[in-house]
Design brief:
The chain is of the alpha+beta class. It contains seven helices and seven strands. The strands form two sheets. A five-stranded mixed sheet has the order 2-4-5-7-6, covered by helices on one side. The chain has a two-stranded antiparallel ribbon with strand order 1-3. A hairpin with a 4-residue loop joins β4 and β5. The radius of gyration is 19 Å and the shape is elongated. The structure holds adenosine-5'-diphosphate (ADP) and magnesium ion.
Length: about 220
Amino acid sequence: LRLEIEDAEKSRLISELTSVFAHEIRNPMQVTRGFLQLLKEPGSWDKKKDYIQISIEELDRANDVINDLLSFGKPSTSDHKKVEVCTEVRRVINIIKAYSMHQNVIIEANLSDNCWIDANPQKLKQCMINILKNAIESMPEGGTVWITCRKTEDGFVEIKIKDEGIGMTKEQVDSLGSPYYSLKESGTGLGMMVSFQIIQSLKGKVRVHSEKGIGTEFSILLPGT
Ligand code: ADP
Ligand code: MG
């Protein structure tokens, strides 16, 4: 299964979403504020424990949204500099190590060096973290994620992120990157949208190979310097 994502409709939607993001954050804040107010009033402890629990869940959700969107909407090309992708991959692995260990997932990296591109390193890392996080989450029983980074003959830098997780049907792959598309119980459905937007802003390409029950491979091609 093979797909190239280049979709004007998706990018149009993305540009309309800024106000929706604000709402995504404001909503949990208002719910939590309301419950804090109620906690000041007299009432049973059992009820109050419910208020606290809902508030924690709301704040966790807001945190997920922020994490998936961290670099969204920042200026695009003005903040580009020379970035060595393998170095950034190593940083990303360090950032996500605690999470992957907790999920019983081993990350195996095969990185060369001298993979230079023009990019905002923050955004590049955000893009990889969102894809890597999904790879880890696709293996509820644990497993291995393979990451490779290399230069291609035709002047691109290729990053591959492969998992042995639940995989996707063709329809599911086609839905990747659509705002709020998520099959997870408490997913945001924003991570892929942000990653694809970042790849697009780097004039890159992404290909997704996935097989239900076998696993998924993301191949990201970014123009080298
Ligand atoms: P979220 O992770 O919050 O659900 P994302 O935008 O990051 O939102 O991902 C959207 C959906 O794409 C996920 O809910 C999942 O169903 C699917 N997906 C993404 N990556 C993978 C993967 N590596 N394996 C299986 N499914 C995936
Ligand atoms: Mg995700």
